[in-house]
Amino acid sequence: MQTPGKEKVIIVGSRTVDSNLHFQYSMSELESLVSTAQGDTIASLTQKQEKLHPSTYIGKGKLEELQHLEEELEPDLIIFNDELSPSQQRNLQEKLAAKVLDRTQLILDIFAQRARSKEGKLQVELAQLEYLLPRLAGQGILLSRLGGGIGTRGPGETKLESDRRHIRRRIDEIKKQLQVVVHHRERYRERRRRNKAFQIAIVGYTNAGKSTLFNRLSTAQAFEENQLFATLDPLTRKLVLPSGYSAILTDTVGFIQNLPTTLIAAFRSTLEEVRDADLLLHVVDSSNPDYENHEQTVLHLLKELEMDHLPQLTVYNKSDQIAREFVPRTGKHFIMSAFSDTERQKLKQIVEKMATENMDYYQVIVPSDEGRLLSVLKNDTILREFKFLEEEQSYKCKGYVLKDHPVKAALKLYGV
Asked: Rounded to whole angstroms, how far apart are CA atoms 143 and 140?
């Protein structure tokens, strides 16, 4: 039954080399993406073929079947499960009455809805324009045909002229604005680096529960919803570890399979936050039957973004709804539910232990009148012992400090 006010959508997929199960998960994910974009999937059409049809994505017989289905159901949109080439999109649009979109346009549309910060909005517009540019045919496309709704958010709403020069000029303009934003972000990160805090980034497949975990670890107010791409702009908060040491925790945009290449390039600077991390918490939804593929997608994208060298802890979330076929990957991992306070405390202990593995151990006796140094040891290091020695009027301190922390010079003076 169709939901009033929502656009009616037929989704179309072609199974080539994928396993049948993986293909079904992919189509199910496309349906979730449609729902996140406020659309309503009214039918699904699939075809098994050795390779995608070069001019129409699906074969001639299947296209006729789609035309009959369109006549019968009168959808607003027909969305294809892969990125269509400019010629495939053109040919399909000529043969179909409803607006034709592909998976990439749908993801870009969701990002356009989700972007909150100036940078996020610029990144989305840049990705949409770079996608649009090779698809301007001949004298340009009739953007007036787009109307409103899914696939038109972002630059579509500004009634852009279908003019290559205009779009290229806008792309250059956005890139310049982004350079300024990136420069500001770099200065902010430099200040954080000077303050020498241990930095943790939460990464993972979209809807794995990253923001839920982020909120409960840091008592922040990140947008938390059972939707794909609920978080787009990176958020940073303080995370207090069991010893009282304050680390920095960053929530990032969710990854997804077949992430548009324009988006990987555009969101590189958003994910720059992750590049400086001392530890990645890779959150995986253990209740999702396709969890293994989600995990591999994230690992592949981290490699593409040159972030696969960073220390990593895999956090298998949603343990209260764990999938029957779930088997954790070898390597450092923790199985938990973000809603369990006990398990969150255990996670903090594991994080603290992993932090100490990347720090230097120290043991010092500091005179009690060295108030500033004692304060730095309390706030900027992981203290394991802090004991007052009455006879010496000093404090015996043992703990762990970041390898390049400026306090290390003072520690040498009081080392035991």
From this structure: 9
